[in-house]
Amino acid sequence: MMIPTLHADFDLQRYHTLACPSVAEYAVTVTERSHLSTALAWAKQRALPVQVIGEGSNLVPRDVVPGLTVINRLSGVRVLKQTADQVELRVAGGVSWHWLVLFCSAQHWYGLENLALIPGTVGAAPVQNIGAYGVELCDVFVSLDAVNIRSGEQHSFSAEDCQFGYRQSVFKGVEEGAWIITAVTLRLSRRFAPNLTYGPLADLNPASSAELIEHVIAVRQSKLPDPALIPNAGSFFTNPIIPIAQARSLQQTYAAMPVYPTADGEFAKVAAGWLIEQAGLRGDYAADTGIGPYEKQALVLVNPQRVASSKVMARAQEIAQIVEDKFGISIVPEPRLFP
Q1: Which InterPro entries match (predicted)?
Q2: What's the pTM?
C-alpha cells in the first residue's frame, strides 16, 4: 500500500516552534482526506502508534517520536449556510489559524479578531480551546469532524461533546491522542461588534475588523518573540485557577496581583506570567542552555540554543517549583509532550 510523501527517520525540528531536536520514525504529509485513511491503514497493519502535528506551536517533542507522525495539511474553507446576521463555515484542519482570521475579516465575517496571530492550525485550535484578549474558540464553535486513529472511523463532536474549559477540551483529557481533527465548523457574525473587555483593548474604538486585528497583532508582537528568530512554544504555563479565598489572602500581601474571579465566585484565575515575574524569573536565562522566561513576557519560555526537550522540561519544572515555593500555587505546562 503506497502512501504519498512517506518518510523514515524524518527530521521534525523545523516542524515545531520550540525547535528541539526530534526525529520521527515515520512521517507523512496529508493534503487530502483519502491520504489520511491510507496512512492510518498502513500504520494499523504494522501496529504502529500514530500522532498528528499541525504547525507544532504547542508541543514539546521527544528526541525520538515512535510510529507514524501525520503532518496535517488538509485545506479548504466552505460556507455551509448564512443569514443576514450569521455565517457558518466548515474549515479544514490543516488551515493556518492566523490566515483564517485574516480571511474571515476580509469576507466581513466577524468574531475571530481577538485571536489574530495565534500560531497553529484550525485542527489544533479545539484541542486547547485557544483564547486571547477575552475571546475563546468555544465562543464561535459549532462542531468538528475527527477521524479515530485506531479504527479510521469519522465522528462529529458538538461543543458539549468537546467539554471545553479554560485551555481544555476532551482532546486533552480522556480522548487525548485518539483523534485527528479534520475539519471545524464555526459560526461567525456578519455584524462587527468587537469584544474590547480585555485590558490592552479597553481603550480602543476600532472602526473596522481589520483595525482591531492590526492592534491585536501589535500587542502580541510587542511582547511575544517570533519563533522563527527565538524558538518558543508561546505561553508555556496555563494561568492557575485557585480558591477565591486563597487569591484574596495573597492579595493582602501582593496588592497588584491580577485576580479574575470565575462566574460562580468560588474560584479565581491568577496570571501565571505575573507569578513568574514576581518570583524574579523574567529574563532569567539558564547559563548553559539559554532557556528561561522571555524578558518581555515571563509566560513565554524560550529555547534560543535549540536544545533537547528534556532540558526544556527540566527548566520548566524548576520555574514551577520556585513559583510554588513563593506563592503556594502550582503552575502547569500548557504545551503537550509529543507524543
Answers
A1: FAD-bd_PCMH, FAD-bd_PCMH-like_sf, FAD-bd_PCMH_sub1, FAD-bd_PCMH_sub2, MurB, MurB_C, MurB_C_sf, Oxid_FAD_bind_N
A2: 0.92
- List strand residue ranges (DSSP E) for 150-240, in order: 154-158, 179-189, 232-235
User: Of these residues, 55, 88, 136, 334, which one is catalytic?
Assistant: 334
Q: Does residue 171 sit in helix, strand or coil?
A: helix
Residue 310 catalytic? no
State the Cα–Cα distance between residues 3 and 215, nearest whole angstrom. Answer: 43
- In sequence order, the 6+-apart residues with CB closer than 8 A to the CB of 282 are 276, 293, 294, 295, 298
pLDDT tens digits, one per residue of 276-332: 999 999 999 999 999 999 999 999 999 999 999 999 999 999 999 999 999 999 999
Task: Residue 178: count other Cβ atoms within 10 Å of its Cβ.
Answer: 14
Q: What is the CATH number of domain 226-338?
A: 3.90.78.10
* Whether residue 209 lies in the annotated active site: no
The string of pLDDT tens digits covering residues 214-268 is: 999 999 999 999 999 999 999 999 999 999 999 999 999 999 999 999 989 999 9
Of the residues 169, 209, 235, 309, only one is catalytic, namely 235
Buried (b) or exposed (e) across 31-51, using 16+ Cβ within 10 A? bebebbebbbebbeeeeeebb
Contacts of 245 (CB under 8 A, 6+ apart): none
Q: Which CATH architecture has domain 7-72?
A: 2-Layer Sandwich (3.30)
CA dihedral of 200, 206, 211, 216, whole degrees rounded to 10: 20
Q: Which of 62, 73, 167, 282 is catalytic?
A: 167
Domain 77-220 matching CATH 3.30.465.10: the answer reads yes
- From the number of C-beta atoms within 10 Å of its C-beta (0-12, 13-18, 19+), residue 273 rates as buried
Q: Which residue has the cell 496581583?
A: 257
- Give the model confidence (pLDDT) of 48-72 as tens digits: 999 999 999 999 999 999 999 999 9
Residue 334 among the catalytic residues: yes
